[in-house]
TrEMBL record:
Domain Thiamine pyrophosphate enzyme TPP-binding, chain residue ranges per copy: 49-196
InterPro entries membership: 2-oxoacid:Fd_oxidoreductase, THDP-binding, TPP_enzyme_TPP-bd
CDD domains attached to this UniProt entry: TPP_OGFOR (cd03375)
Entry keywords, A to Z: Oxidoreductase
Alphabetical list of Pfam families matching this protein: TPP_enzyme_C
Protein name: 2-oxoacid:ferredoxin oxidoreductase subunit beta
Keyword field contains Transcription regulation: no
Species this protein is from: Desulfatitalea alkaliphila
Gene Ontology MF terms: oxidoreductase activity, acting on the aldehyde or oxo group of donors, iron-sulfur protein as acceptor; thiamine pyrophosphate binding
BP term (GO), one: cellular respiration
Length: 269
């Protein structure tokens, strides 16, 4: 199948702001799926609410556009009922780690075979530029005109501590990395998290004097460093694959439990 087979062309041009990084994520997600040669009927995309969640409307997969922060809860139901399907969940930083934070840590803890893409633009874009759990201290936002005092979550550290068996980070400047990491996450047999740092020039860039989209992309280029580069620069954000390990996958364990209960009621071992 070609890239065109995976998108709903009638819904283009997209409605993201000029310079938004989410279109780059969409582009490379589609190309990752194309690289893997997946049938679109084998894919279910579940999204919540926010700028990032619009991505589901542009893809010709089975899609669920659900409640704010609840995408992973719906995705868990889909995966348990149809474990043979590839379930992909694109989320924003608020959708994933604010109202959706509880679902995020428990999906990671269970190690259910879902691909979670966290599109981190450090702001609530769709509702007017409020700060999020990933904004960080001293960030200016509509709800923090004098700067935030809230420390931010580290998505990678949180996902790792919660038990995700694949955790990666990249940026919208590093487009080939996005494609590669998403492809790796989709085929990984467990809960996989890909954080993509994505620019929002409309709100975050403007309110924090980071310039236009080009300048924000330049910051991603110059302000990040590959994880395997030694010695790592402590002033730069590391990117790469932080976790890639095997753990028992939840759906398989659940199937084993059901079979045991249906046969002789044997305890799960």
């Amino acid at each position: 199948m070609s890239v065109q087979d995976y998108i709903r062309e009638r819904f283009f041009p997209h409605i993201w702001c000029p310079g938004c990084g989410h279109g780059t994520v969409l582009n490379n997600l589609v190309r990752a799926v194309e690289t893997l040669g997946l049938d679109k009927n084998e894919i279910v995309m579940v999204s919540g609410i926010g700028c990032s969640s619009r991505i589901a409307g542009y893809l010709d997969f089975h899609t669920l556009h659900t409640l704010h922060g609840r995408a992973l809860a719906f995705a868990t139901g889909v995966k348990l009922s149809r474990p043979e399907l590839n379930v992909i969940v694109p989320m924003g930083d608020g959708d994933a780690l604010a109202i959706g934070g509880n679902h995020f840590i428990h999906a990671a803890r269970r190690n259910i075979n879902i691909t979670a893409i966290v599109m981190n633009n450090r702001i609530y874009g769709m509702t007017g530029g409020q700060f999020s759990p990933l904004s960080g201290e001293a960030t200016t936002a509509t709800t923090a005109p004098f700067g935030t005092i809230d420390p931010d979550f580290d998505t990678v550290a949180l996902a790792t501590a919660a038990g995700a068996s694949y955790v990666a980070r990249t940026t919208t400047y590093h487009v080939q990395e996005i494609r590669k990491r998403i492809a790796e996450a989709i085929v990984h047999p467990g809960f996989a998290v890909v954080e993509v740092m994505s620019q929002c020039p409309t709100y975050f860039g403007r309110k924090n004097k980071q310039g236009d989209a080009v300048e924000m992309l330049r910051r991603y280029k110059e302000g990040t460093v590959p994880l395997d580069k030694q010695p790592a620069d402590p002033e730069k954000i590391p990117r790469g694959v932080f976790v890639q390990r095997e753990r028992p996958e939840y759906c398989k364990r659940y199937e084993h439990l059901v079979q045991a209960a249906m046969t002789d009621g044997a305890a799960l071992t």
